[in-house]
Amino acid sequence: MTTIDLIAASAQPASATGQNDLKSALKFITCGSVDDGKSTLIGRLLVDSKAVLVDHLAGVQRAGETDLALLTDGLSAEREQGITIDVAYRYFATEHRKFIIGDAPGHEQYTRNMVTAASSADAAVVLVDATKLDWQNPAMELLQQTRRHSLLVNLLRVPSIVFAVNKLDAVEDATLAFHNISGALAKFAEAAKIPVRATVPVSALKGFNVVDGKPGWCGYEGLSLLDLLETLPGTPAETGEAFSFPVQWVEKFSSSSDTSQGRRVFWGRVATGGVQPGQTVTILPSGQTAVVAQVLDHIRQPRAIPAGHSAGIVLDREVDVSRGDWLLAPDTFTPSREVAVTMAWMDDEPLVAGRVYWALQGHRWVKAKVRRIVHKLDVNTLAEENATELPPNAIGHVELSFQEPLVTLPYVRSRILGSLVLVDTASHKTSGAALVL
Predict the structure, then answer these.
(1) Is 36 helix (H, G, I), strand (E, B) or coil?
(2) What mean pLDDT do residues 169-180 have?
């Protein structure tokens, strides 16, 4: 289980009772350009929802005033420079819902950190700083990083995207500014085919429309940001696809006299479909088949397990299965050595054809070669351009070939089977996030 999953499963504050316990936590990130107020917005959410202790609040003072951004910027380098570098997760709850927030960095060089946070998010709040834009001009240009982050969260299939126009308290005509900026955002979203839940005017510094609504401000009569977040759906489990299961850990029974089943438990999280005793599975890459003898949940109780939940699977016989192997529904998936992907390139070195990387899917590592770079996407015009390489932080279409076959689905169908990570074979740096077309 990931860190945020463990937080969601274990955190049970006194304020989170009743109906709140029956609803899943919403994992959302804040993203956007540098200094748009992402950390301050999260600080405001935490403070105004009474999720910060008094002594913690006293520790984030600067020049006698509370600096809300320090509630999430925990690294010493972040506090010294006043920027967000790594993703910081914070938890809070209201009477209606639990939340896990990921504060993603806005700097272009930390795009890889933002992509990591967005890959498991249920929602994304894209902040837009009104003071950085030519808000008096209805045909204004949005900041490049605003466009890039919006495209990335859409590519990563984040179910709900919300635009929050921040710092409107610092412009001369907040109503005109919000009207023009929201119009520019709507035009961009339509051209990029980005479904947007809402566009909300906020002031993270003063708290307008963050937790408490400010009716009529900027001509806006909708929900406050927190009220809106309480209504957003979580990411649905991929139960409609055939069964797939990446093996994360192999546990051997200390002793077992039962010869009707194997003596090992294969632990992991069901990626798609579901698993129950009596089900036939195929093992990738060996191609062997077996029958599921027993299915255990996270507290070792026997029961059927659907997608999105952890499981321990015992087969009816001893089969060679290791960490990184996949258990699959038989005669359903077709392993392939070649795949076309949308690539979000995050390495400092450009991506060029012919390079070989490690590809990670689930817990399985295989060598991957870049066969061809089809084109790159201009984040300003959204045009597809011919390219021979992808520079750092670029997005484009790429063809990959694998040393061993992998089972994949288009990313629009499966977030897990449709995603890969490329890792540099020499430096071991995460180089790119690939989404199967």
Answers:
(1) coil
(2) 96
Look at residue 115 and give its three-state secondary structure. helix
- Per cent of the chain over pLDDT 90 is 63
Residue 8 CA to residue 1 CA, distance in Å, equals 11
The number of C-alpha atoms within 13 Å of 203 and in the hemisphere containing its C-beta is 15
Pairing assessment for the beta strands 305-306 and 356-361 based on DSSP bridges: unpaired
Q: What size, in residues, is the chain?
A: 437
Q: What is the pLDDT of residue 39?
A: 82
pLDDT value at residue 260: 74
Strands 123-129, 26-32: parallel, antiparallel or unpaired by DSSP? parallel
Q: Which of these, 34, 50, 46, 54, lies nearest to 89 by C-alpha position?
A: 46
What's the rounded Cα separation, in Å, for the pair 110 and 124?
17
Q: Is the pTM of this model over 0.85?
A: no
SS3 124: strand
Residue 51 is inside which H or E element, if any?
none
pLDDT computed for residue 125 by the predictor: 95
**Any residues with CB less than 8 A from the CB of 219 and at least 6 apart, and which?**
175, 178, 179
- Residue 90 near residue 45 (C-beta atoms within 8 A): no
Longest CA span, the chain: 79
Name the 3-class secondary structure at 270: coil
Contacts of 355 (CB under 8 A, 6+ apart): 369, 370
Instruction: Answer yes or no: is pLDDT of 357 > 70.
Output: yes
Contact 403, 367 (CB under 8 A): yes
